[in-house]
Amino acid sequence: MSTGLWVTLTYRDADAGLAWLQAVGFTERAVYRDDADPAVVQHAELDWPAGGGVMLGTYRPRPGWPDEAGTGSAYAVTDDVDGTYRAALAAGGSSLQEPADQDYGGRSCTVRDVDGNLWSFGSYRGEE
């Protein structure tokens, strides 16, 4: 089955972003680099174990798009909030909210990735 929802982000250092995302549990599906400059990631896709994924690329200024990288945010469901939090910090992320039980159910945390994007990881899967 194809993925129906993707988070899209840009990174100043896309290779650092790819490494961080893989350290917290994403798996690489595809990476396409610029032929003239292989350090530039034109497009990459990573899958999250619980479903969904991330598409990313190296930041470049474009009219009408956000003026800088590192301004995105996402929520990813995981059964191991504490382990994912530790992996995120070990890979260079910074803590905004340590893992905690939430009033609405589940457990969650929030970290800033290597380029400043906010990632919340939680066990709450939404209302079913």
UniProtKB/TrEMBL annotation:
This is Similarity with Glyoxalase/Bleomycin resistance protein. It comes from the Bacteria. InterPro entries: Glyas_Bleomycin-R_OHBP_Dase (IPR029068), Glyas_Fos-R_dOase_dom (IPR004360), VOC_core (IPR037523). Transmembrane segments: none annotated. It comes from Promicromonospora citrea. It holds the Pfam family Glyoxalase. Residues 3-124 form the VOC domain.
